[in-house]
Design a protein that fits this description.
Length: 190
């Protein structure tokens, strides 16, 4: 089983690159951002609460996203593997993921960490904000808060996976297809 954590700051290209990895390796895509936006679109209570955090560029509480991931893992027990996109985002989420995967003896294979300069992240997200309608992409101060939250709460995960020998840094600057090629090469050799 191939379980990939696709990692990087907001705007690093996680969602974009997940599409290529799914095609190359036949994995199931689990994006907590997409799952949360589906809840918002459906007008659920969970979605309403999550929206308040997301619109400010804050993280949604750990127990909410961990619960969503657990139910997706339970529902896909015969999968060839998963690509975790935007999850984990805190050390507690990473520990919870290890525990969930260890129940089935299918640990994380590797963390693919996209490295992109800050100004490029801001430019990409503002560009997406012009067409996506995503509230969190339309305001530069919200984007900067997302990057600050990433630096404070999410960046420590690099050390977490380095200690397990599972961290792979990948240059996330350049064309989408070049970056897809770099990711594929690393994932094939994990
Ligand atoms: P996400 O949906 O994960 O949003 P994101 O970090 O901005 O990443 P996304 O995948 O959308 O963007 P991408 O880098 O692909 O999370 C949204 C919010 O949900 C969070 O802020 C948080 O509130 C909440 N949330 C989600 N998961 C959570 C968790 N685990 N715990 C707590 N809260 C959670 O790309 C961005 C743009 O760049 C795209 O428009 C793309 O076209 C463009 N792009 C990509 N690659 C490019 C390239 N090489 N060149 C030019 N443009 C490129």
């Amino acid at each position: 089983m191939l379980n990939l954590v696709l990692f990087g700051p907001p705007g690093a290209g996680k969602g974009t690159q997940a599409e290529f990895l799914i095609k190359s390796f036949g994995l199931i895509h689990l994006s907590t951002g997409d799952l949360l936006r589906s809840e918002i679109a459906a007008g659920t209570e969970l979605g309403l609460k999550a929206k308040a955090n997301m619109d400010k560029g804050e993280l949604v509480p750990d127990e909410v996203v961990i619960g969503m991931i657990k139910s997706k893992l339970d529902a896909n027990q015969n999968a060839k593997g998963f690509i975790f996109d935007g999850f984990p985002r805190t050390v507690d989420q990473a520990k919870a993921l290890d525990n969930l995967l260890n129940e089935n003896k299918t640990p994380v294979s590797g963390m693919l960490s996209l490295e992109v300069e800050k100004q490029e992240l801001i430019d990409r997200l503002l560009e997406r904000g012009k067409i996506s309608g995503r509230a969190d992409d339309q305001d530069q101060s919200v984007i900067e808060n997302r990057i600050n939250v990433y630096n404070k709460k999410t960046l420590p995960l690099i050390e977490y996976y380095k200690k397990q020998g599972k961290h792979f840094g990948i240059n996330g600057m350049g064309s989408i297809s070049d970056i897809a090629g770099r990711l594929k090469e690393v994932a094939e050799n994990i």
